[in-house]
C-alpha cells in the first residue's frame, strides 16, 4: 500500500517521483532498524511500525510543508479503510463527505450568524443517516451552537446537546467542523491524525527537532554512489551553505575534491568533466539549477546509469539542485533522495532574516538615520514577502521578491545618505526607487503596485527616525502593536523583534482579522481538493457507492433536462427591434455567447451518452467530461465558452440558469434595459458599462473618450424596492464587498463584522461623468473583479465613500466581487 501511495504523489507535484528500487532500499533499512521481538505478532507490529515511519520520514523530507499533511492524511485514511487503525467502522459516505463537502439547496438560512455556505453544507450533511437531526438541532439550540461556532478552536470544544458524544467519534466530529468552520480543518485533521495513528506525534512532528544540517547529515548517510541527493529549491533557502559545511567536515577541499558547478550555457562540459573525475576518485559534485538545462539532463541520466553499471568509488556522491519543474526526467527524480529546505515562515522570522542579512559591523557603524530607515526597509521587505500567504487578497499575482531586492535597495539608500551628508532625507526619491524600481520592477499589476507604494507612504516618513507604529492603521485594534525602536545596536534590534513582535496577525499587514479565516478556509479547501485528486478513479469508492460513470450519467441527464431545450432566437429578436442601441447590442452579444455554450453542453453530453452506450469509443475528451461530472467540476470545454468561475458544477448550473432567466426577462421588453441589471450575471460586464457611457455621450453630445463610469451606493437592497429604471445611467446589483462592509445609511465603507468574509452590497447606481467630475475627495477607488481569484478578472473601479484614508482600504485588500462561493 505504501509504495502505491508514493506513486500517486506526482499528481500533486511532478517533482514527487519515486522508484521501486529506492523504496526497497528504505524498506530493507527499516527491517534492520526494527527492534527485535521474541513474539511473532509483536515482531510483525514492530516491523510494520518501523517501515511506516522510515518511509514517511524519507518521503516527507522531499515534500513541501503544504503537502506533508496531505500525504499523512492519505496514509491515515488508507490504514483506516483497511481496518488497521481506528475504532470506528469505516464509512465511505462519511469519508466522501469529508473530502468533498457537498452543499444542498434548501430553505433560506434562518441564522444570521451562520454563513450561507455553512447552512447549505449542513443541509447536505443531514442526508447522512447519523446526522439526520443535526440541522433542526442547530436551529433549536442556536445560541449554544453560536458559542461553539465563535470559539477560537471549536474543534477542541464539546458540541452542544447530544452531539457532545462525538468527542468519542472524532471522525464524525470532523464532518461538523468541515461544515461550520472549514477554516479550522487543517488543525482538526492534524489533531485527529495525532490521536488515531500509533505514535502519531512522531509523524506530525517528523524532523521538527532537527536543523537543516542534521537532516542533511542523515540523508548523506542514506545516500550511495548511485543514489544522488536532490535539493528542491525554495526562495530564501540556502542549501549550498549547508553542503559546504558538510563537505569540510568530511575532509573535502573546495575545487579539488568538492566540485560546485552552476549550470547554464556551456557548463555541461564542465559538469561532465567534474563528474568523471569524482566518479573515479570519490569526490563530491553539486550541480546547481539543473532545471536550466532540461535537455542535457537526459545525457546526465545515461551517464549516471553508466557509472552504476561500471561501479563508482565508494565515496563518490552527486548532489543536484533545481526549482520545481516538470522538465526534469523521471529517471533522475525517482532514483534521488529528495530534500526541501524551506525558510522559516512568518513575519517575525522574515524580519529577523532580513535584518541579519546585513553584517553586524555595517549596522554598528551606520548613523542613526540610516539604521532607522534600514529597519523600516527590512520591515517593508518582510511584509511584501509574507503577504502572499493571503492569496488573492494579498496580491493579484505572485512575485519573486527576494533578499537581493533588499540588498540593492539598501545600497541605494546608503548612496543617498552619503550624498545628503546629514541634511533632509529625500523620502520621495527613496520611495520611488524602492516602490517603482527595486521591488516595483517585479510588479506588473497596477493595484499591486499601488499597494506597495501605500506601504512605503506609511513607513517612509520622518516619524520612522524615532519610534513609530509599524502596523498600518492598527489604532482600532486593542493590544496589537509593533513599534519601531529608537536607533540602537544590532543586537538590540534583534532583541526588540523577539520581545515585541507577537505571532503573525493579518493586522500587521493592514488586513482585517477575517483575512486569516479566508486564508485558512482556502488552505483547507486546497488540501481536500488535492486529496480528491489522489483518490482511486474508475470504480465505485466503496460498498453501495455509485461508480463515476453512474454519477456522471445521472448528472448529465439532469443537465440535459435543464438546458437541452434552451436556445435564443437572436435573428428573430433583431428583426423585431425598431432600433439597435448600445444596450441592445450588449444583450444580443450575451445571447450569442449563451447559445454557443448551450450547444456545446448538448453536443458533449449526447456524445458522452453514445460512449456509455458503446456506440462510440470513449475518447480522452469524453473521459475528462465524465470525470468532471463525477467530481462536480465544470468541464474544460464548457468553461472555455463560459464566464470566469470558481464554482463547483452544481452551483455553476444554478448560476447559469439565473443568467438565462435574466436574458429571457429582457426579451419580453427588448427596447428597455431591466430596472436593475444583475451585472455579474453578464459574461462581458465591461460592455454594459461601456454602453452606459455610449448612451450618455449620444444623449448629451459629449465625447465618448472623455467619459468614465461613476458609482453611488443606494439604500435599496432588492430590485423590488426600485420603482423605475435610472434616467441617467443604470442600477446594478449582485456585487459583494470583501475586506470591509458598507454602512447602508451613510453609504460609507466601514470595518467588517467578525467572521463576515463578504458583505452583500445594496443596489448601486452607475452613471457616466467626465473625468474632471469623477475626481472628488473622500472616495476609495474600489476594484471590481468577476471572481474571488481577482487578478485578470478585474473589469472596472467602483467609487465608494470613505471617511478613512483610502490607503487603509488599499492595504486591507478591499474589493468588490461579482461571483462568490458564498
Backbone CA Rg: 30 Å
The total count of helices amounts to 33
Instruction: Give the amount of beta strand, in percent.
Output: 5-15%
Strands side by side in the biggest sheet? 2-3-4-1-5
**Overall number of strands:** 16
Mean pLDDT across all residues, rounded? 91
Largest β-sheet summary: 5 strands, parallel
Shape: globular
What is the quaternary state of this protein? single chain
Q: Percent range for helical residues?
A: 40-55%
- As residue ranges, the low-confidence spans are none
N-to-C terminal Cα separation, in Å? 38 Å
The assigned structural class equals alpha/beta
Task: Summarize this structure as a short list of keywords or feature phrases.
single chain; 822 residues; alpha/beta; 49% helix
Commentary on this structure:
- By secondary structure, this protein is α/β, with parallel strands linked by helices.
- It contains 33 helices and 16 strands.
- The strands form four sheets. A five-stranded parallel beta sheet has the order 2-3-4-1-5. A five-stranded mixed beta sheet has the order 12-9-16-14-15.
- Helix 17 runs antiparallel to helix 23.
- The protein starts with a helix and ends with a strand.
- The relative contact order is 0.07.
Task: Reconstruct the topology from this structure.
Elements: H1 2-8, H2 20-33, H3 40-60, H4 65-81, H5 92-100, H6 116-125, H7 134-140, H8 142-149, H9 170-180, H10 185-196, H11 200-204, H12 212-222, E1 229-232, H13 239-249, E2 258-262, H14 267-281, E3 284-288, H15 294-310, E4 317-322, H16 330-333, E5 337-340, H17 347-356, H18 360-365, H19 368-386, H20 403-420, H21 427-438, H22 446-459, H23 490-500, H24 514-534, H25 548-563, H26 570-576, H27 582-612, H28 620-630, H29 636-641, H30 649-667, E6 676-678, H31 685-700, E7 707-713, E8 730-733, E9 736-738, E10 741-743, E11 748-750, E12 758-760, E13 764-770, H32 771-774, E14 779-787, E15 794-801, H33 806-811, E16 815-819
Parallel strand pairs: 1-4, 1-5, 2-3, 3-4, 6-8, 14-16
Antiparallel strand pairs: 7-13, 8-13, 9-12, 9-16, 10-11, 14-15
Amino acid at each position: 500500500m505504501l509504495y502505491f501511495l508514493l506513486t500517486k504523489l506526482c499528481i500533486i507535484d511532478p517533482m514527487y517521483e519515486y522508484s521501486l528500487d529506492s523504496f526497497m532500499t528504505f524498506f530493507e533499512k527499516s527491517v534492520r532498524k526494527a527492534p527485535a521481538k521474541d513474539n511473532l505478532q509483536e515482531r510483525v507490529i514492530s516491523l510494520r511500525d518501523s517501515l511506516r515511519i522510515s518511509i514517511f520520514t524519507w518521503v516527507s523530507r522531499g515534500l513541501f510543508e503544504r503537502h506533508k499533511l496531505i500525504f499523512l492524511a492519505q496514509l491515515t485514511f488508507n490504514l483506516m479503510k483497511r481496518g488497521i487503525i481506528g475504532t470506528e467502522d469505516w464509512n465511505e459516505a462519511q469519508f466522501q463527505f469529508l473530502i468533498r463537502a457537498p452543499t444542498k439547496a434548501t430553505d433560506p438560512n434562518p441564522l444570521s450568524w451562520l454563513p450561507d455556505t455553512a447552512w447549505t453544507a449542513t443541509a447536505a450533511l443531514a442526508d447522512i443517516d447519523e446526522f439526520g437531526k443535526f440541522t433542526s438541532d442547530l436551529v433549536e439550540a442556536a445560541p449554544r451552537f453560536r458559542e461553539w461556532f465563535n470559539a477560537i478552536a471549536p474543534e477542541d470544544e464539546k458540541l452542544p446537546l447530544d452531539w457532545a458524544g462525538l468527542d468519542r467519534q472524532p471522525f464524525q466530529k470532523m464532518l461538523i467542523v468541515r461544515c461550520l468552520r472549514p477554516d479550522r480543518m487543517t488543525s482538526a485533521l492534524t489533531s485527529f491524525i495525532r490521536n488515531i495513528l500509533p505514535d502519531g506525534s512522531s509523524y506530525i512532528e517528523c524532523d521538527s527537532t532537527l536543523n537543516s544540517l542534521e537532516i542533511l547529515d542523515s540523508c548523506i548517510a542514506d545516500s550511495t554512489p548511485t543514489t544522488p541527493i536532490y535539493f528542491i529549491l525554495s526562495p530564501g533557502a540556502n542549501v549550498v551553505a549547508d553542503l559546504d559545511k558538510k563537505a569540510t567536515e568530511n575532509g573535502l577541499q573546495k575545487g579539488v575534491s568538492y566540485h560546485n558547478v552552476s549550470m547554464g550555457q556551456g557548463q555541461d562540459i564542465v559538469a561532465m568533466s567534474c563528474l568523471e573525475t569524482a566518479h573515479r576518485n570519490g569526490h563530491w559534485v553539486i550541480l546547481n539549477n539543473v532545471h536550466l538545462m532540461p535537455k542535457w539532463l537526459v545525457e546526465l541520466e545515461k551517464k549516471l546509469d553508466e557509472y552504476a553499471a561500471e561501479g563508482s568509488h565508494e565515496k563518490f556522491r552527486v548532489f543536484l539542485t533545481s526549482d520545481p519543474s516538470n522538465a526534469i526526467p523521471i529517471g533522475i527524480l525517482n532514483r534521488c533522495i529528495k530534500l526541501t529546505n524551506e525558510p522559516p515562515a512568518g513575519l517575525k522570522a522574515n524580519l529577523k532574516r532580513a535584518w541579519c542579512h546585513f553584517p553586524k559591523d555595517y549596522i554598528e557603524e551606520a548613523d542613526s538615520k540610516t539604521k532607522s530607515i534600514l529597519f523600516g526597509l527590512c520591515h517593508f521587505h518582510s511584509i511584501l514577502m509574507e503577504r502572499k500567504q493571503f492569496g488573492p487578497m494579498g496580491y493579484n499575482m505572485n512575485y519573486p521578491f527576494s533578499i537581493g531586492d533588499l540588498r540593492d535597495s539598501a545600497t541605494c539608500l546608503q548612496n543617498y545618505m552619503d550624498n545628503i551628508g546629514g541634511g533632509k532625507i529625500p523620502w520621495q526619491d527613496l520611495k520611488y526607487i524602492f516602490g517603482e524600481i527595486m521591488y516595483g520592477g517585479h510588479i506588473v499589476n497596477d493595484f499591486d503596485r499601488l499597494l506597495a507604494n501605500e506601504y512605503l507612504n506609511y513607513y517612509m516618513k520622518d516619524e520612522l527616525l524615532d519610534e513609530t507604529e509599524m502596523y498600518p492603521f492598527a489604532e482600532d485594534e486593542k493590544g496589537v502593536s509593533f513599534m519601531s525602536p529608537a536607533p540602537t545596536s544590532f543586537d538590540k534590534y534583534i532583541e526588540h523583534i523577539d520581545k515585541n513582535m507577537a505571532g503573525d496577525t493579518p493586522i500587521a499587514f493592514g488586513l482585517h482579522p477575517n483575512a486569516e479565516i479566508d486564508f485558512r478556509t482556502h488552505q483547507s479547501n486546497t488540501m481536500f481538493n488535492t486529496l480528491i485528486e489522489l483518490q482511486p478513479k474508475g470504480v465505485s469508492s466503496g460498498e453501495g457507492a455509485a461508480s463515476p460513470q453512474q454519477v456522471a450519467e445521472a448528472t448529465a441527464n439532469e443537465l440535459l433536462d435543464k438546458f437541452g431545450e434552451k436556445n435564443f432566437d437572436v435573428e428573430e429578436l433583431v428583426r423585431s427591434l425598431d432600433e439597435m442601441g448600445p444596450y441592445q447590442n450588449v444583450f444580443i452579444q450575451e445571447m450569442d455567447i449563451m447559445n454557443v455554450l448551450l450547444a456545446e453542453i448538448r453536443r458533449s453530453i449526447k456524445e458522452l451518452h453514445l460512449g456509455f452506450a458503446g456506440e462510440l469509443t470513449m475518447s480522452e475528451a469524453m473521459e475528462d467530461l465524465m470525470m468532471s461530472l463525477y467530481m462536480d467540476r465544470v468541464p474544460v470545454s464548457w468553461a472555455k465558452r463560459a464566464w470566469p468561475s470558481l464554482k463547483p458544477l452544481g452551483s455553476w448550473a444554478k448560476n447559469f440558469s439565473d443568467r438565462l432567466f435574466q436574458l429571457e426577462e429582457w426579451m419580453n421588453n427588448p427596447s428597455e434595459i431591466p430596472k436593475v441589471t444583475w451585472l455579474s450575471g453578464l459574461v462581458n460586464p465591461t460592455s454594459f458599462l461601456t454602453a452606459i457611457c455610449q448612451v450618455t455621450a449620444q444623449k448629451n453630445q459629449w465625447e465618448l473618450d472623455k467619459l468614465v463610469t461613476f458609482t453611488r451606493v443606494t439604500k435599496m437592497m432588492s430590485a423590488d424596492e426600485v420603482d423605475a429604471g435610472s434616467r441617467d445611467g443604470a442600477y446594478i446589483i449582485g456585487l459583494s464587498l470583501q475586506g470591509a462592509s458598507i454602512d447602508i445609511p451613510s453609504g460609507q465603507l466601514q470595518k467588517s463584522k467578525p467572521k463576515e468574509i463578504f458583505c452583500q452590497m445594496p443596489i448601486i447606481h452607475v452613471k457616466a461623468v467626465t473625468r474632471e467630475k469623477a475626481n472628488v475627495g473622500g472616495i476609495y477607488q474600489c476594484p471590481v473583479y468577476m471572481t474571488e481569484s481577482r487578478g485578470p478578472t478585474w473589469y472596472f473601479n467602483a467609487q465608494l465613500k470613505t471617511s478613512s484614508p483610502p490607503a487603509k482600504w488599499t492595504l486591507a485588500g478591499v474589493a468588490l466581487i461579482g461571483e462568490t462561493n458564498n
